[in-house]
Structure formats: C-alpha cells, structure tokens
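PT: before anyone asks, these are the final sequences, not the draft ones from last week. 362 residues across everything. Please model them as a single complex and drop the result in this thread when it's through.
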Amino acid sequence: MAIEKKIDCVILGLLSHEDLTGYEIKKRMDTSLKYFWGASYGSIYPALSDLVKNGMAVKRDETENNRHKIIYSITQKGRCHLKDWLRLPAEKDELRYETLLKLFFGNEAGALQAISHIDAFEEKIEKDLQHLTDSADILRKNVSSDDTHKYYLLTVEFGIKTYSAYLEWCREAKTMLKKER
Amino acid sequence: MAIEKKIDCVILGLLSHEDLTGYEIKKRMDTSLKYFWGASYGSIYPALSDLVKNGMAVKRDETENNRHKIIYSITQKGRCHLKDWLRLPAEKDELRYETLLKLFFGNEAGALQAISHIDAFEEKIEKDLQHLTDSADILRKNVSSDDTHKYYLLTVEFGIKTYSAYLEWCREAKTMLKKER
DNA sequence: CTTACCATGTAAGGCGTTACATGATTCA
DNA sequence: TGAATCATGTAACGCCTTACATGGTAAG
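LR: through. Structure below.
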C-alpha cells in the first residue's frame, strides 16, 4: 500500500484524533474540512475497508440505543503511515474556480453577465466567511485546552484571510466592470 | 451533448478568441489558466475530436515550414454552446490544498514540521505572485486595445489579491506556531 | 405520520492523469 | 549532436461522484 492515496491519509488523520464511524467521518469532511478537502460516502466506506484490510485501522461493532454502528480506530501501523505522509512535502495545492473560468471568457458574454457571476460568488463567500468567523471564535476559546484546536484554527484563519481577500476583489472587480461599460 | 462538460467549454472559450492547435491550447492552460484551471493532453485532444464530431468546431490541416499542424476554429454552433454555458451560474468553485490538509493534522507531527510545510507553500506562492504581478503589468498596458485583456486582467488580479493574503497568513501562522512551542 | 437525521454500503459511469509512442525542427 | 520545443495522439488505470438500495430512530 503506497503512501500516496489521499483519502486514506485524511481518514487516518481524523482517526488519529478520535474513534469515528464512517458517517461521522463524512460529517467532519462536510464541516471542518470542507473548505479545502471533500469526500463522499462512495470513497469513504471503501477506503475504511481497505484501511482495515491493510492493518491501518481496526473496526468494532457497537449498539447504542438500538442503533448499530461500526466504529473505527487507528492502529500503530496506521499512525506510522500517517506520520510518514505528513513528513512528505505537499505535492498538490490546486484551485478550480468555475467562476474565474467564466469570467476569463467574459468578453463573449458582456459585463452584465460577468457582474452577476461575481455577485453570486460574493454572496456565497460572505455566507461562508460568517461561518468561518464563528468557528474561529469558538476555537480561540478552546485553543489552550487541546492542541488539535490550534491547527484547526490555523486552517480556519487561512479561510478567513483568503475569503476576505475574495470579497475585496469582488468589489474592485465590479467597480472596474461598471466603470468601463 | 450536454452543456456540462467543462473541458469542452474551456476549449470553446479559448477558440472564441482565436484559432488554435491542440498544442497551443495546452500552452494557454499552462500559462493564462493555470492558476484556476488545468488540463492535460489526454483530455484536450479527445475533447477536440468530440467538439468537431458535434459541430462545435472545425479543423483544418496546415503546414508551416514543413511542420504539420491541425488548427481548430469555433463554429456558430460552438459559440452558442459557449454562450449558453456562460449564462449558467458557476456550480463549483473548489479548492484542494494538501498543505492545509497536512496542517490540519499538524498536532500529530509537531510545530516544526508544520512550519516547514508553510515555508514550502510560501516559497511557491511568492514565485507565482511575482509571475502574476508581471502579467498584470503587461495586461494593464494593453487593456484598452482588446476587451479580452480586461477579463484576463480581472482573473490575474484575483490571483494577486489571494496570493498576497496567503503570504500574510503564512507569516502570522508561523509566528503563532513559533510562539507556542 | 412524515420529515429529518442516523447509518452503511454498492455499482455504474465520468472524468482525467500518467505514461507511452512517434517524429520533426530549432538552437546551442 | 543532443537537448529543447513543436506537435499529435492513445491506452491503461485511478480515483471519485452520483445514484441507488436499505432500514432504523427522533422530533415536530
């Protein structure tokens, strides 16, 4: 099993904090990680099976108020694997913004349409920024109690910084487009 | 042929400016578009075939100083398709930063390692920012002559804004990590 | 009683990269 | 003469998403 498969490493990373079910892992992806990494059930559950098969994690069945769960824990081998991967330099930081793509070809459609794409983008970013700011407030209160919060906060602050820059750009871009029409 | 296939729309967008060969399209992807969209030959050439098959583009063979080329042009139908796609709201703006992922799990590896990931990230961003700044300077000089430059400049300014924010974050994040060790 | 959430998975198919294969020309 | 660039393509493979399939529980 090579080191490169990202989904495995992400899951191991989450399991290194705490034991989790596949469902809970998905929730983490949709909240804490969603701004810079995503994954669906269709990749999470098979990855969990592989992890167990390769001795990186173990699973146990539990029933809580008649509800069946499969809880995964990281093994020593899994922790080593995670550490090896964390040591390697990041190889791919990539951004795919359809909004920018549409803007790039903006002359084909005109300034009004470009502005409406920017408006939609701005609205989404504003909402997400609010959410990030809330997260940061909560994290700052707990940052001393748990070291994992410190690193989580760092990624949230990355989001806040960049999303604020996006908003600045939105305003300037729209001003430019309105002026030159 | 549905509207959704991105690679087709990107190629049509490029062809809406000028006739191009597959090779030249790849070059555009690696320069003007690389900060927010990427594509390899393995997706470009098949897409070009499909585009011709569907009447969105036409190709012609040419020989320039004994060098064989296949030059593609957009058709009226292709232009309509492009415009239809440009009208639709952008559905996916997504970022996948392995650096942030590794940072998120930073407590497993420690502050020193986190800092070295940030250093690598910072170095790459600084280089790219320089390149973006150079592009912006050139574009600003030509922005009045050609409307397509205006929109190109907008995306470059997006890059400059966000990359500058990244650098600010890098410095703050490192300060935080060094202080708390 | 029905909507939302908890919970686990599979199958088909899409999309794209990497690596390979080939060959000409230009420049040092 | 050898490296870089121009130029076109294919095949294998990997990875992931979407949609489907199933069923329990909590809350309103």
